Amino acid sequence: MDIFTQAEILLRDAQYETWTWTGSTGPVTCFENAALMGFIHVFSTADDLLSTWKESQQVVLARHAASLRGAGAKAWNVYSVFLTPDQDMGRGREIERIEEDFSLTRKIAKASIITAEDVERSLLPLLPIRSKPLLGASNFETRLRIRLKDISPDAVTAFLKEATPAEVARILGATS
Amino acid sequence: MRLDFIEVCGFRGFRDLARINFGRGFTVITGRNGVGKSTLCDAVEFAIIGSIGKYAVEKAAKESLSDYLWWRGEGVPKAHYVTVSFVDDNGKPFAITRRRESGADRSADEIHAALCRGAAPDDALRQLTRTSIIRDEWIAALSLDLTETERFDLVRSALGALEGSEAGNKAKEVVTAAEAAHSKGEAAYEAALSRLSDRLTQQSETQAALSRSGDVSFALQVVGAAVPDAPPELTARLTAGRNELANGRARVARLGEAFQLSLDVTAVQAAYSDPITAANRKAASAAHEAAQSEHQAAQQAVSEAEQCLAREEEMDAIATSLSLLVEHGERLGLHDNHCPLCAASRTSDEFAAGLDAARRRITSLASGVQAARAALATAKENARQSSLTLKAAAAAAQTHADELRRLREQEAAQVEFYNQWGIEHRFIQDPDGLEQAISLERNRLIDLERALLVLEASQAVSRMSSIESNISALRAEIEKLARAVSQSQNAVTAAREIERSIRRVSGEIIDERLAQISPLLNELYQRLRPHPEWRTIDYTIRGDVRRFLSLKVGDGLNPQFIFSSGQRRAAGLAFLLSVHLARAWTPLRSLLLDDPVQHIDDFRALHLVEVLAALRADGRQIICAVEDTALADLLCRRLISTATEGGRRIDIALGPLGATSVVTEQEIHPLPVGVLRGAATA
Do A112 and A90 share a domain, yes or no? Predict the structure, then answer.
């Protein structure tokens, strides 16, 4: 699974424009939509991420400084995303603490990015709500009819329509 | 459908007219504590449902929230009202105005029709405000702190799974109706059984009566003799015979009384006629007569003694006068040899002898008075003794007279009793004959009663066939009723099956829907990240009749007890937002948050802003009141403002008189696009 590719798929689905820029620290995926913009950095190891994330961020920001200066309030909505597939659990917590550094950009830092789901989970702050429960018609009546197959259909119909409870009880008595 | 504006005047902290125009995309409201940010949420809730639910305690110190709904500070508002206006996707407005004086200008049904659709839950408008307005004080209370049943009900209401609820209520009514019909059928069945039991008892008794039946013709003769004038029909004869039997018994009772009277009178007569008593009576009578004679003689003696005494006393008076005359003559002495008293010629001797003779005479006249008095006293004593004797003799004679009188009275009463009840007088002097007559009458009545029993038994034959046919009909009826009871029992069973099936189907639907929203809850939980370790949250549902919804993190841990205050609020927000998003029964796409970031650290506040931005990106209208201006800035930057769904920022503050007013209103324009590529356009 290529993290860059997977990230771009997700971001484009979410109406972001994405592209790749390659600087001295390697390739970076840039993204932007109506409210946000940012850069995705991928590191091969957790150590690499922890030791070079600041430099990588600095390089990218410096390259886009002019644009950001002209962005007005949007310049506050810049995300730096630091991801690594490295599953070093000990370092994973250390990596996540990068997110609590509020200087320059809002940061997303995750280790153990192995699957597409991992990429999606890490980019959730950038994405619209993913889960959209489809609470369609419950087909209550149909399901109830199937469940009540041993009861007279006339009685069930009377029950589900406008018949009074007394009338339904009468039909149940007459048909059972 | 989203909020367009609210207008308040004289409502809670807003004395003067204030109008808040909401951005179609979002509105961020800022202000310090107590300036009335929450009042704007209150106004929306009040306009929709006519009350404010966040005050759990309705009354405090005899005051309720209704006492504080309207302005109570200095100055007088020009009016007291709240208007909330919504606008649908086609730009069609729907406004509700609630005035202090006249209430709402829209009915609850109108509001319901505008803000709800499809299978809305019970008390839908309250559910709508409850799930649309997320208040600081309710974030934990309405999520983690709810009981598991309350939490289940909240989610079920939010899901709008109503068909099951309505059908469940109707099924309960059907069960009740079926049970009532069954009870009625059972009562009819029991009553028929009871009637059959009575008839069977009657049948046995009739059978026994039949077994006692004897010679009917002889019985007819007996009854005929007893009631010769009775009609020929058997029933009439029986009735007449029964009457005659009753009359005969009464007659025998009266004859018995007459017999007793005769015995009493005879006993008294015998006692009166007893020889010793007669001799005593005769002796008493003779004694009485003797006493009377003696008494009369004594009275006569007294009378005579009194007359004698009167004479003696008269003589005594004459003697006294004579004595005076003699003494006067003696004093005068002879006057010329003539008596001075009678002028007769007397010598001194004759005169002296005449005086002595006069004195002897006087002495003789005076000497009888004492004797006469003594004789009278003796006569009176004799008369008193004879009077006492007479009284005693009279009393003895009266006693015997009274006995006779009583005897006569008894005899008269006896005659009267005989006359009254038509009893032959010959029995007055013949108690034995009366006793024999009574015995004969009693025998006759026994014969009559036996005859009547025989005839009644013969009637029982015809009654038997009637009873048997009645029993047969009753058995058929019982059979029919038993079938009906069986059917009604089946109806109850079927009704209960319907009720059970509804509960299960609706429970399954809710379970399925909860399963459907579970990823949403988890996603929101993951986005808000309340806890660094427990990254996912799960729910479990249990219970059949009462349903419980538990939230669990990690290895089945209850976040209510292991999360910090801020973490609980973050987890609660995830829950409430998932409930809000799961509603399919309202077109309203507005989410109001009243200071949702209290007790939440900056890092998690940022997560919340990102979640709100995601909701905003999904087309929802976000209205968020916050105290922190930096947070307001962040919200205004992060929530997407577009040309058609713009954002607004509103600052409110207290005026000099303590009334709230809008200080600034600012449109939040869309941010530039294409920044990073160097082709930024606003």
Answer: yes
Q: How high is the pLDDT of residue B357? A: 86
Contact A67 B176 (CB under 8 A): no
Same domain, A108 and A144: no
- Domain with A162, as residue range(s), is 140-175
User: Is A89 in CB contact (< 8 Å) with chain B?
Assistant: no
- Asked if residue A98 is part of any domain, the answer here is yes
Residue A135 lies in a domain: no
Query: Within this chain, do residues A120 and A144 fall inside the same structural domain, yes or no?
Result: no
- Give the number of C-alpha atoms closer than 13 A to the C-alpha of residue B404, restricted to the C-beta side: 10
Do residues A113 and A145 share a domain? no
A152 and A120 within one domain: no
User: Over 60: is that where the pLDDT of B679 sits?
Assistant: no
| B505 near A CB under 8 A | yes
Q: Cα(B178)–Cα(A165) distance, rounded to whole angstroms? A: 8
Domain B2-137+587-668 in CATH: superfamily?
P-loop containing nucleotide triphosphate hydrolases (3.40.50.300)
Q: Which residue has the higher pLDDT, B517 or A4?
A: A4
Sign of the alpha-carbon torsion through B340, B344, B346, B350: negative
A48 lies in the same domain as A75: yes
Taking an 8 Å cut-off on Cβ atoms, the answer to whether A135 and B677 are in contact is no
Q: Do A173 and B522 touch (CB under 8 A)?
A: no
CA distance B637 to B635: 5
* A94 shares its domain with A118: yes
Instruction: Give B515's Cβ-side CA count (13 Å radius).
Output: 6
Q: How far apart are CA A169 and CA A147, in angstroms?
A: 18
Q: Delimit the domains of chain B by residue range.
A: 2-137+587-668, 289-426
Tell me the C-alpha distance between B5 and B17, whole Å: 13
Q: Which residue of chain B comes nearest to A39, CA vs CA?
A: B676
Task: Give the number of domains in chain A.
Answer: 2
Tell me whether residues B523 and A124 touch, CB distance under 8 A.
yes
Helix (H, G, I), strand (E, B) or coil at B598: coil
**A165 contacts chain B (CB < 8 A):** yes
Tell if the CB–CB gap between A34 and B674 is shorter than 8 Å. Answer: no
Q: What percent of chain A is predicted at pLDDT more than 90?
A: 55
How confident is the model over B167-188, as pLDDT tens digits? Answer: 888 899 999 999 999 999 999 9
Question: Measured between beta carbons, which residues in chain B are less than 8 angstroms from residue A79?
Answer: none
* Within-domain flag for A14: yes
- Rg of chain B, C-alpha, whole Å: 66
Residue A134 lies in a domain: no
Q: Residue B29's pLDDT band (boundaries 50, 70, 90)?
A: very high
* The model's pTM: 0.62
Tokens standing for residue B623: 């209205």
A71 in B contact zone (CB under 8 Å): yes
Q: Do A173 and B509 touch (CB under 8 A)?
A: no
Chain B residue numbers touching A155 (CB-CB < 8 A): 494
**Cβ pair B149, B546 in contact under 8 A:** yes
Give per-residue pLDDT as tens, B38-63.
889 999 999 999 988 766 545 555 66
